[in-house]
Specification:
about 20% strand; 2 domains; Arc Repressor Mutant, subunit A; 11 helices; Homeodomain-like_sf; AraC family transcriptional regulator; eight-stranded antiparallel beta sheet; alpha+beta; Multidrug-efflux Transporter 1 Regulator Bmrr, Chain A
Length: about 290
């Protein structure tokens, strides 16, 4: 099953369980045969929504429809759509629709509808993507890592802060100085180990490829032997990287015979000014 089909199957599962269901990101990712981290990333790339935002907006859309078409009590609707109290429901409802549930029932103001998502991929192909396929043996990286709970979205805010900390404390400069391995640059490495998958956890490394002794203040790990699709990224961060990820999943995978293996994935940052319009970086995706 391709990524587009997997995401659509997951959306269908979400829609079937919006009412009176304890939806977890792990259960949704399982339907897509994916880890929580990889599912969340791909869902956001393809839809421009986080999983939790999509669920919340869809539930509040359905709640608004119930308010104007049924006589259900507001307290019952709050429980029906996953809110523990009418106050929490009212606060979320007003944030999305701009009116309270009571006002909506009286047909005061307008309502905002978020419709069910249907993934449609347009294979434009007008702007070429520069990539190469290579096979590499396992290699060592050294660096620092943090573990994030993707089910509650720790990675979304945590990873940018992690990079900022690495710049401030000098780790980023140390890694560039240590770089003598298979890849030139400092790496952002996403790894989901087998024992983490069911818990929605992932390890994120800021690291570099390095032969030799591991400095005392750093950790090391092996990147497994893989066949890699390596994509060139041209332009300032973070937009160039984000745009390339979107093209990979919305254009490249649907039009190529490769599948994503779900092992370690890499973002490669070269030693330059990431704000420059001609800054060069890469995305490495393990494929089969």
């Amino acid at each position: 099953m391709g990524w587009v089909e997997s995401i659509q199957k997951a959306i269908d599962y979400i829609e079937a369980n919006l009412i009176n269901a304890d939806l977890t990101t792990y259960d949704i990712a399982k339907v897509a045969n994916s880890s929580v981290f990889h599912f969340q990333r791909t869902f956001s790339i393809l839809t421009d929504h986080t999983v939790s935002d999509y669920i919340r907006r869809r539930r509040l859309t359905l709640a608004a429809q119930d308010l104007i078409s049924t006589d259900e009590k507001i307290i019952d609707l709050a429980l029906k759509y996953g809110y523990e109290t009418p106050e929490a429901f009212t606060k979320a409802f007003r944030k999305q629709h701009g009116v309270s549930p009571t006002e909506a029932r009286k047909q005061i103001g307008t309502l905002q509808s978020y419709n069910r998502l249907i993934i449609q991929i347009n294979l434009k192909g007008a702007i070429p993507m520069n990539y190469r396929i290579v096979e590499k043996d396992a290699f060592q990286v050294v660096g620092i890592k943090r573990t994030y709970n993707c089910q509650i979205g720790e990675n979304t805010m945590g990873i940018p802060q992690f990079w900022e900390d690495a710049h401030i404390d000098g780790t980023n400069d140390q890694l560039f100085a240590l770089n003598n391995g298979e890849i030139n640059g400092v790496l952002g490495v996403c790894i989901v180990n087998a024992d983490q998958k069911s818990k929605g956890l992932m390890d994120y490394w800021i690291a570099t490829a390095h032969h030799g002794e591991v400095p005392k203040n750093l950790l090391s790990t092996k990147i497994p032997a893989s066949k890699w699709a390596i994509f060139e990224v041209h332009g300032p961060m973070p937009h160039a990287m984000q745009d390339t990820w979107k093209k990979i999943f919305s254009e490249w995978f649907p039009s190529n015979p490769y599948e994503y293996t779900g092992t370690a994935e890499l973002e490669v940052y070269t030693n330059g000014n990431p704000s420059n319009p001609d800054y060069y970086s890469e995305i490495w995706i393990p494929i089969k």
